[in-house]
Structure formats: C-alpha cells, structure tokens
Amino acid sequence: MDNNKRSRLWKWLGRAARMTVFFAVCVAALLYIDYRAARASVMDRLLGLGQRMAPYLDDGRATEAPRLVRINGIRMHVAAGATAHSPTMVKGWYQERYAARGDGMSKVTEDLRKRGAIPPEAPALNQLAFGDERQGGLAALDFGDKLSLEMLKERLSRFVGSGDLGSIARLRYVYWEKRGEGGTRFLTVWTDEKFKIADLVPGARTDAPGSDLEGVPRFPGTVRVLSAAEQGMPQQMAVYDGTGSPATAELFYRSRMKQSGWSEDPTFTTIAQKHGRRASRWTNAKGREVVLDLSDSRDNETGVTVVALQTH
Description:
- The chain is α+β, with helices and mostly antiparallel strands.
- The two termini are 39 Å apart.
- Strands 1, 2, 3, 4, 5, 6, 7, 8, 9, 10, 11, 12 and 13 form a 13-stranded antiparallel beta sheet that branches.
- It contains seven helices and 13 strands.
- Helix content is 27%, strand content 28%.
C-alpha cells in the first residue's frame, strides 16, 4: 500500500472512531456540538461472534459485549471499555497481544531493524500506532496463524490481486483516550469477513458504499465519504465532503429541510452557535430526529464537510 493510500486509510479510521464514539452520547444532543472531541460508544448488541478482538487484559468485565455496525457496507464489530490503567498501559498491552512472533512478518521486521530501516522501538510491520498519552490508537493485522515467508508472500499476493484485506488477515483496532478523572476509556473495532480497503477509502469523486439518510437532502457538490448504521437500531450517519462553504450549506439545509416537513430546534442551534458550530437538530411528524453539523472541509480549504446523524 503506498503512502497516500495508507494516509487516507488512517485518516478514515480516525474519522470512523469519532463516529462510533459519538453514538454513545447521541441521546445527550448538546454533546454533539463538540463531537470531534467526545469519545464514547453505543452499538447494537450482537451475540455469538466467532473471532472477536481480545478485551483489555483478556478480561471481559472491563469491556462491553460486542456490538455490530456497518461502515461503508463493511461489517465491523465494536466494543467500548474503561480501565483505571494509563493509556500507555492499554497501548502496550495491545501491542504485545497482537505482536508478530516467530513467523515471516517478525523475521522481516527484525531484519529491517538490524539494517536500521526502522527504529528499534518501532512496532512490528503488522502494526501502526499514532497519537500520544492523551489520545491515540493502534491498528494491527492479525494473521491468525504463524506464517512462513512463503506463506506471507502468498497471502500478500492475494491481497494485491483482490484488494480484500480480509483474505489475508483480520483488522484489530483500538482507540484510547485519557479520562479526566484518571484512567483510560477505549474503543475496540475488528473485522471477521471481507474487508476491501477501496470501500473504506473511496475515490475523490465517488460515493462510499452505503446509503443517505431518508428524507434528508444532500448539499449539491458533495460526495458521501462515510456511511454507518447500527444493526437493528435507527441510528445512522452519513458524512459528505465537497465544494461550497458551511454558510452556504446552512442556508440550503434551513430551506430544504423545512420544505421537506422537518422542524428545527432553535435552542439547539443557539447553543451550537455559542460554541462556534454550525449545527442544527431537526424532527419530523414521524418522530425521526436528525442532527446536521457543517464545517470547513479537512481536505479542501474552500470546501465543506456535512455530518448528518439520525439519532432516532
């Protein structure tokens, strides 16, 4: 995977973590004003999983039961947890838990370390860590079995031919954040089926797999970059990037949402403005509730990002 694709993948993973975290506080809508800083998780409970990610310290009491979401059409399992331990300990445990040992990947890693190609303290090549003691994450590829160099080459050739990461390994991802009262809260995400990176990182002008929110118009000039939904639950999210500005998008949605039968919550909008956000909450006659958050695009200084979240 080239550096550009790798960068786009981890940027997406960060965005996905922020999204899953926000579901936990969607009932407290005011927290949405600063959802990029809020981290928590509520997902639909799923029983009977075959290959779940290890809970912290292999102790399920500190981690919720696995829950299921579909992100850009891909099934992912999610579980949130908390511990009195520091983020450094959480990171270190998961690095050790999913370290490559005695196989082709570990041999390649050690060879590169000896040559000085990677730092001695760097994780194995099947892992990527980011962030710091305050917040960060670790992504790892779990190959399941110890692979010889020949077996590793064979799996990698499969990935190159199909783009399906699930054909060679399972993704294991943990996001952590230091709690103000001490300790750490964390979010684990994992896969156990087909996992095409191209679906997670769609082309610049191509909609990501998934769907828009029913009855919510799309701001012209944008493409869908993220679609997520909970299994068996009404919660759904769609994220769009494109041309335009937050101010123009705000005028568009205020007009079109009212035309479509939605009613705006003025109190929510006022509080959002006090926090420097262009966010609004809308309800319709069917009892559905949608929150819209508009901001400058992270990928384009002159663009707009639209986050549409259906809470119920």
